[in-house]
């Protein structure tokens, strides 16, 4: 009868949910860098928000992060993420895209359920910023337009800063502490992304999990590449990037060209200056042991790259 039909249907809905979530569950199982939950805990030293809110914000941020990675990997034509085939190579582009978008709206629904209009505003604003930044990044890459350093940093603050701002401002919408965290969070996003850019072209650990110098194959105008192209004597590097090189010898040659323009040294000194700014922001906002520790670790990664 109808009851059995309803039971079968609810069983079906359960299976539908599982199928729908499969690409998301897949990417969620990959070992992450795990920095986001720690950043949230660190900012809560200042914001002192209820643990229930912290848990919700952590889950929302993690969902958005993973969903955006699924879409990123499609947009970047990536093959591997953390040493494992990307979601769309396993589940196909249509399913992966649909799942990622579903998760975005699910996250919005969770923010809405917190019952704070300001939180919903934050979510919408930062998701728009995220897509603006991502759109610029893709436009430059696919039109072979090398941005200025200033334009690049602005894009990063929109894109990478987006999810950082989203978590901090979500928390702050439930806090009595109304200090201005934006300059700090923007610089955090910038530091994090430019360090990632550097490691992509330099670190061995990165290459075991990703293919060698993946940003070159993707044709991405990352921070060191922007510096190198802007300071190059000829068009060799710009042309190599345009070819989307897959050959490791070609990529090694590109890295040599970047060594010649001093782009790695320049990127490191840029990161050191951002790191000094971060320390000043923290001083202004008041002592924060947890955040200091995270920064220390990120800076250590930077120093280790030099040994």
TrEMBL record:
PROSITE patterns assigned to the protein according to its UniProt record, in alphabetical order: POLYPRENYL_SYNTHASE_1, POLYPRENYL_SYNTHASE_2
Record InterPro entries: Isoprenoid_synthase_dom_sf (IPR008949), Polyprenyl_synt (IPR000092), Polyprenyl_synt_CS (IPR033749)
Entry-linked Pfam families: polyprenyl_synt
Keywords: Magnesium, Metal-binding, Transferase
A GO biological-process term: isoprenoid biosynthetic process
Domain of life: Eukaryota
One MF annotation (Gene Ontology) recorded for this entry: prenyltransferase activity
UniProt keyword Transferase, yes or no: yes
Family the entry assigns: Belongs to the FPP/GGPP synthase family.
Protein name according to UniProt: Geranylgeranyl diphosphate synthase
């Amino acid at each position: 009868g109808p009851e059995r039909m309803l039971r079968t249907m609810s069983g079906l809905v359960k299976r539908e949910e599982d199928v729908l979530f499969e690409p998301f569950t897949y990417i969620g199982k990959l070992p992450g860098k795990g920095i986001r939950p720690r950043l949230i805990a660190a900012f809560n030293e200042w914001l002192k928000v209820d643990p229930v809110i912290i848990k919700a914000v952590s889950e929302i941020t993690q969902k958005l992060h993973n969903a955006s990675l699924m879409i990123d990997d499609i947009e970047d034509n990536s093959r591997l993420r953390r040493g494992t085939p990307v979601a769309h190579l396993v589940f196909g582009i249509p399913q992966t895209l649909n799942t990622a978008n579903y998760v975005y709206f699910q996250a919005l629904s969770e923010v809405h359920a917190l019952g704070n209009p300001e939180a919903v505003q934050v979510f919408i604003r930062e998701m728009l910023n995220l897509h603006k930044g991502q759109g610029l990044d893709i436009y430059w890459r696919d039109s072979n337009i090398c941005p200025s350093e200033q334009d690049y940093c602005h894009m990063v603050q929109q894109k990478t800063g987006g999810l950082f701002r989203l978590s901090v401002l979500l928390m702050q919408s439930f806090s009595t502490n109304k200090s201005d965290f934006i300059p700090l969070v923007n610089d955090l996003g910038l530091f994090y992304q430019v360090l990632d850019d550097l490691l992509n072209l330099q670190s061995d650990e990165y290459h075991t999990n990703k293919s060698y110098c993946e940003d070159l194959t993707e044709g991405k105008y990352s921070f060191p590449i922007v510096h190198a192209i802007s300071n190059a004597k000829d068009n060799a590097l710009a042309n190599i990037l345009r070819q989307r090189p897959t050959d490791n010898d070609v990529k090694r040659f590109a890295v040599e060209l970047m060594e010649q323009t001093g782009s790695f040294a320049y990127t490191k000194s840029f990161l050191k200056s951002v790191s000094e700014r971060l320390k000043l922001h923290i001083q202004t906002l008041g002592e924060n042991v947890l955040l200091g520790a995270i920064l220390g670790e990120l800076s250590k990664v930077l120093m280790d790259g030099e040994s």
